């Protein structure tokens, strides 16, 4: 008996990439710093730094360095299809499924009929995602997670507590 992977399950990387794009879409023309995106979306800065080059290569975002720099959508949100984002972030998984890599330990993977079926199902899955854009997610009420509200409501307390203190000495040094 062979065990099939589920190629229609998106990875965390893809979910994070979509959330980053939605955050940029909501920001409009304003550029967002990677650290701010990480904080607002509750994604580690390391993961944001890993995902941004993938999004740049895919033509979804553009980055600017220096003062006033940051991350912004490279094209309008209604032109960025979710299926395209999945193709960019799940490239290896999709390639593996097309080459018959969905069944483990099979002697003749590419020739197995189940691999063709899974490949067709994967194409159907992505074609459904192609019908939706980042603008759809950015504008929907359900996409507006409480993450932003939580981040604003739970501002970090100041590191040092300011306390008024009395400057009168507690003891006197007597001169003898």
TrEMBL record:
Organism ancestry: Bacteria, Pseudomonadati, Pseudomonadota, Alphaproteobacteria, Hyphomicrobiales
Signal peptide extent: none
Source species, domain of life: Bacteria
Protein name: Rrf2 family transcriptional regulator
A Gene Ontology cellular-component term: cytosol
Gene Ontology MF: a single term: DNA binding
Entry-linked NCBIfam families: rrf2_super
Keywords attached to this entry: DNA-binding
């Amino acid at each position: 008996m062979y065990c099939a992977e589920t190629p229609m399950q998106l990875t965390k990387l893809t979910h994070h990439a979509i959330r980053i794009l939605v955050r940029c879409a909501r920001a409009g023309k304003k550029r967002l710093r990677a650290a701010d995106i990480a904080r607002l979306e509750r994604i580690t800065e390391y993961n944001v730094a890993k995902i941004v080059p993938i999004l740049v290569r895919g033509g979804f975002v553009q980055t600017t360095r220096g003062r006033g720099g940051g991350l912004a959508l490279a094209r309008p949100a209604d032109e960025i299809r979710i299926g395209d984002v999945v193709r960019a972030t799940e490239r290896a998984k999709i390639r593996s499924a097309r080459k018959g890599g969905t069944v483990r330990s099979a002697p003749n993977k590419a020739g197995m009929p189940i691999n063709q079926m899974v490949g067709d199902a994967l194409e159907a899955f992505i074609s459904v995602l192609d019908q939706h854009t980042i603008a759809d997610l950015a504008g929907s009420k359900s996409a507006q997670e409480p993450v932003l509200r939580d981040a604003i409501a739970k501002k970090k307390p100041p590191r040092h507590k300011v306390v008024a203190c009395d400057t009168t000495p507690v003891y006197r040094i007597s001169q003898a």
